[in-house]
Amino acid sequence: MVQVVMTVAGSDSGGGAGIQADLKTFQELGVFGTTAVTAITVQNTKGVREVCPMTPAVVADQMDAILEDFDVACIKTGMLFSADIIRAVAQKLHEFNRPLLVIDPVMIAKGGQSLLLEEAITALKTELLPLATIVTPNIPEAEVLAEMKIETQEDVEVAAKKLLQLGVKAVVMKGGHRKNNENAEDIVYMENGEQFTVSAKWVETKDTHGTGCTFSAALTAELAKGVPLQKAIGTAKQFIQAAISHGLSIGHGHGPTNHFAYRTFNEVKMKEDVINES
Ligand SMILES: Nc1ncnc2c1ncn2[C@@H]1O[C@H](COP(=O)(O)OP(=O)(O)O)[C@@H](O)[C@H]1O
Ligand SMILES: Cc1ncc(COP(=O)(O)OP(=O)(O)O)c(N)n1
Fold first, then answer.
1. Is the complex ipTM higher than 0.95?
2. Closest residue to atom 7 of ligand 2, CA basis
3. I want to staple 106 with a disulfide (CB 3.0 to 4.6 A). Which of 79, 85, 179, 245 is the partner?
4. pLDDT tens for residues 19-39?
5. Residue 184 neighbours by CB under 8 Å, 6+ apart
6. Which residue numbers delimit the Pyridoxamine kinase/Phosphomethylpyrimidine kinase domain (predicted)?
7. Residue of the nearest CA to atom 11 in ligand 1?
8. How many Å lie between the centroid of ligand 1 and the Cα of residue 66?
């Protein structure tokens, strides 16, 4: 039976990030995607021009409609925009018995535009993160959530531990914003103290719009299928590596990652050295 997943996220009219990236990724990985739209963004590869948030009630109603009808195996959140939307989402998760939850703590678009109001950070930390199966911050997002600067490998670990203290079960510290990250290494910290890395080859490209959304959507799809966490993260890494290395040079800014590359170019899929235990 096909597994149903839901993304609670913003719409990217340019199709490279947000719910559009999530749905394409879900489709590629064989799960049925549903949505609760938190905001419409007027956006293309050159940046975000306008953000039009939904009311918290409409976000909650969309979640109700889906969760009442389907047995949703895993939910992911992306752009949530405001504290009121975050509270509405948290309340629905409690009402519907807290399914598996992947939180991509989206804050700022590549072009620098804010996708999360500053007033929403406390709600994200106190109301939503404690419900997470896994959270997937990039380095700037981890700096905000952990309230510290991240420069060294030790800083990455200290920040991850601070996030685990909020009640998150696992943290993927994504490495897309780290300097000299030739192995595109992401480090995973688990609540039981275990840690491991997933790595690939760094790709020199400007076409990276939607990398974070795509990675977390792939992880959501794999968790929904019942794949254990470590293997699910490995597959998400293979999916994003294929999508970046076959990125689409369309538009005039940062082109989108290629969601059908994982299926099409299976040499990447065959790579087995993605997970490194430590
Ligand atoms: N140029 C790149 N080459 C290879 N992997 C990359 C590249 N940029 C980002 N990644 C990978 O893409 C995923 C998303 O990371 P990141 O770009 O940090 O997220 P975000 O889009 O949230 O800023 C991570 O697995 C990261 O290691
Ligand atoms: C609607 C919407 N949601 C999220 C993002 C940010 O996506 P991300 O995957 O982090 O990609 P980049 O912003 O780095 O391209 C977005 N832009 N729009």
1. yes
2. 210
3. 79
4. 999 999 999 999 999 999 999
5. 175, 176, 199, 200, 201, 202, 203, 241
6. 12-258
7. 176
8. 30
20 in contact with ligand 2, CB cutoff 6 A: no
Residue range 4-277, CATH number: 3.40.1190.20
Place of tokens 């300097």: 179
Angle at alpha carbon of residue 195, lines to 9 and 116, rounded to 5°: 25
How many Cβ atoms sit within 10 Å of the Cβ of residue 134?
A: 24
Sequence length of the chain is 278
Nearest bound ligand to the CA of residue 209: 2
Residue 81 and residue 51 in contact, taking contact as beta carbons nearer than 8 Å: yes
Q: Which residues contact 276 (CB under 8 A, 6 or more apart)?
A: 196, 197, 198, 199
pLDDT digits (tens, 9 = 90+) for 91-114: 999 999 878 999 999 999 988 999
Which residue minimizes the CA distance to atom 4 of ligand 1?
Answer: 202
The atom number, within ligand 2, closest to the CA of 48 reads 17
Ligand showing the shortest atom-to-Cα distance for residue 184? 1
Q: How far apart are CA 44 and CA 124, in angstroms?
A: 27
Number of the ligand 1 atom closest to the C-alpha atom of 140? 23
Cβ of 3 closer than 6 Å to ligand 1, yes or no, is no
> Closest ligand 1 atom, CA of 240?
12
